[in-house]
Amino acid sequence: MGHSNWPEWIYVAVVIALLVYVGAEAWNIENLIDHAPEDAEIIKVTAQQWFWSFEHADGTKEIGELHLKKDHAYKFEIHSKDVNHNFNIPEFLVLMDAVPGRINTVWFSPNESGEFDIQCREYCGLIHYNMRAKLFVEGS
Ligand SMILES: [Cu+2]
Fold it and tell me: For residue 28, how far is its CA from the centre of ligand 1 (angstroms)?
C-alpha cells in the first residue's frame, strides 16, 4: 500500500490544516506589530480637511501641533471626520490610514528630540498638500 492509495480527503485535510496554521501565524505577527507597551500614552488623532488635531490622555487638545516627550511610548488612535487621509511622521516611519468610521492604531517612541513634520500621505482634496502639523519632541 503506497501513498497513492490514501483517500483524497487526507490531502484536503492537510491543506486545510496548513492554511489554518499560516493564517494563525499571520494573525500573531499582526498582533505583535500592533502591540504597544502597556505604559504607552494614548493620543487621539483626528484627521479632517485639511488639518490634524490631537487629544492627549489628560484631555489636553492641540491643533496643528503635537508635543511629546522623548523616550515615552505613544499609541495613536487615528480616525477621520470626512474622507480618507493618511497620518505620516516620516522621520519616525509612522504611517497609518485615517479612515472615517473606524479607528486605526499605531505606536512609537520618539528617540530623538527636536521638531519634525507630520503630513497627510493620502490625496484628500484641494488643500491636501498643506495638511501638515508640527511634532515637537521635548527632553534630552
Ligand atoms: Cu489629508
Answer: 31
